[in-house]
Amino acid sequence: MIKQYQEKPLRDLTFAIVGLGLIGGSYAKALRNLKVRKILGMDISHGIARACLNANMIDEVIEADGSNLKEADVIICSVYPEAIVGFVRQNVQNFAEGMLMTDATGVKGTMPHDIQALLPESCEFISGHPMAGRQGSGLGMSDAAIFNNSNYIIVPTEKNSPEAVRWLEEFAKALGCARSVKVSTEDHDKIIAYTSDLPHITAVALVNSASYNENTQYFIAGGFRDATRVADINPDLWSDLFLSNRANVIAEIENYQKQLERWKKAIENNDREALKEIMREAGPRRRQLY
Amino acid sequence: MIKQYQEKPLRDLTFAIVGLGLIGGSYAKALRNLKVRKILGMDISHGIARACLNANMIDEVIEADGSNLKEADVIICSVYPEAIVGFVRQNVQNFAEGMLMTDATGVKGTMPHDIQALLPESCEFISGHPMAGRQGSGLGMSDAAIFNNSNYIIVPTEKNSPEAVRWLEEFAKALGCARSVKVSTEDHDKIIAYTSDLPHITAVALVNSASYNENTQYFIAGGFRDATRVADINPDLWSDLFLSNRANVIAEIENYQKQLERWKKAIENNDREALKEIMREAGPRRRQLY
């Protein structure tokens, strides 16, 4: 049985994008730049899907009955984590033989296994996502450039073929990502709790401090501005992400709280050496993050 | 008695910069762009002062005996907070009549009053600093552009003349700052503990977490990168800043810890509504910070 995605170059493949928000819209724009054969798209809001069609971001809206999903060689699901399994259940009868499906979900849990179990033998689900995004939410914030120089995380399970993994690596490169890394689902969620969930929490916590007021804006510099850059996020999406990764996120908050206690103790004790040591530890770590 | 700084335009004034690190070096470069009459400079490291001279950032090194400080119409002190009073004590006999002195110190305490008390009648000290800076430290990181669109904080006391305040406002504008704001020394240190000290602490705490390892770099996106941008700071300078502002910094850490507890509780309780509420609170606040 022929798997189109393995046989043909990107420009000869048809893609379906499920969910046309910030990330889905960015995939659509990037795929258009790559001049792929055809882009199908759908969104829970039909108005958004129509807007993408009118803007020539997609070539066709996916039918309500899912019938034209058959054309898709590759399906990219960029919907809320909770919605992926539902989408697959509802549409699996419309998937083409040999289709490759992937997602852009920031928390994995058992989802990759759940979806693989629902797919017919000839189809494959390879989980992953770009470490990309930006403040705000929705189609209006989408941008093909979010992939540029980002990291693409691939989360294969023991069920995945080397071909699917390799394809996603190549696809990430084509999107403009600087590199791709492979990681297990368990490690993924643990790592992401630290590198993604936690900095969003610290940013929100900073602007939510009781010390914030209408004059804060006149007294900030780059430090505050940068530290709070991602404080303006989509509450619906992110409450999903945090709650689907609860244990890991709580562990990361606690690790972080220990560092704050270390700071507080050093300052309370007037311990200049301890403070310097804390900062000397951080410098080389930060310089490793390009 | 004539106060040169009040009578003459910037291009006819001689400036002395005391401390040629990141901030002092940036003043020197900005003053050169403004084509002021003459720039004198000194640094605790004579090699740094010579380097500035060789790079044409300054026109003359301040003599070890301070004798040529007499030429300065305006002196800008950009040394560690602890060092300013010492500099004034040692050099007050060399200050010209009508000289205006200012600083760039991130924490004020009683320093403005202390210095005003040391100065002769004809001289004036007006405290302030740009809300500007960047990662790293030292002359090599200095850049005239740090002032661009930044906020300039002016911290007058009851001793200051309206002329000195107005001059510093105009000077900030000439440097490229977007606006200047006036605040009392007490309010200054309290506000800065929140808008400057705290985000440096949160950035350092993030990279110092026990979860950081050599693979972290492959799993980060803009969120982590931005939130930790200022984690690489000068330990000597910043331990001074934190310890000179102890009570305020501790209060800010504690306010911040309350927000983290709020997050942790909402996640532990699986309280989706509370999480959304936290994020809904932060969005508009963040959007207020241009």
Quick one: CATH superfamily of the largest domain in chain A? NAD(P)-binding Rossmann-like Domain
Q: Could you list the spans of chain A in which at least 5 consecutive residues all have pLDDT below 50?
A: none
CATH topology of the largest domain in chain A: Rossmann fold
CATH architecture of the largest domain in chain A: 3-Layer(aba) Sandwich
Q: For the record, what CATH class of the largest domain in chain A applies?
A: Alpha Beta
Q: Pair with the most extensive interface?
A: A-B, 92 and 92 residues
Radius of gyration of chain A, taken over Cα atoms and rounded to an integer in Å: 21 Å
Strand portion of chain A: 5-15%
The biggest sheet of chain A, with number of strands, parallel, antiparallel or mixed sense and barrel status, is: 8 strands, mixed
How many runs of DSSP E, i.e. beta strands of chain A? 8
Secondary-structure element string of chain A: HEHEHEEHEHEEHEHHHHH
* Content-based structural category of chain A: alpha/beta
Apparent shape of chain A: elongated
For the record, the count of structural domains of chain A works out to 2
What oligomeric assembly is this protein in? homodimer
Figure out the total of helices of chain A. 11
The level of helicity of chain A is 40-55%
Q: Please give the alpha-carbon distance between the first and last residues of chain A.
A: 43 Å
Q: Could you report the average pLDDT of chain A, rounded to the nearest whole number?
A: 95
> Largest beta sheet of chain A: what is the strand line-up?
3-2-1-4-5-6-7-8
Family (chains A, B): Belongs to the prephenate/arogenate dehydrogenase family.
Protein name (chains A, B): Prephenate dehydrogenase
Pathway (chains A, B): Amino-acid biosynthesis
GO molecular function, one term (chains A, B): NAD+ binding
